[in-house]
Specification:
The protein is built from five helices and no strands. The longest helix has 20 residues. It is elongated and about 65 Å long. Helix content is 53%, strand content 0%. It is mainly alpha-helical and 93 residues long. The chain has one domain.
Length: 93
């Protein structure tokens, strides 16, 4: 699964040196994936994969810190003005 993530979803990061990936780069990656219509669960899985790659780089002293840890996590983007009917439960008698 991780290999598939790296092969299919990280093309825009392939040309960057690992020590040049910053928190802003990670947040831009998240924003771009959301704009492209990638589902929130998949984006979260991609962040796990990227976090593991960066964690490996930290352990092997390729970078000083893991920028994924500081990045703001992706959130669901709801539609403003969307209304739902509220159902109120009544006590049993």
């Amino acid at each position: 699964m991780y290999e598939g993530h790296l092969r299919h979803h990280f093309a825009e990061l392939n040309e960057k040196r690992i020590d040049r990936i910053s928190t802003a780069t990670v947040e831009g990656f998240i924003t771009a994936k959301q704009a492209a219509g990638v589902s929130l669960p998949l984006i979260k899985k991609l962040m796990v994969t990227l976090g593991q790659v960066m964690g490996y780089a930290v352990r092997h002293k390729m970078v000083s810190h893991n920028p994924v840890r500081d990045a703001e996590r992706p959130r669901a983007t709801g539609t403003l003005g969307e209304k739902h009917e509220m159902k109120i439960l009544e006590p049993c008698q």
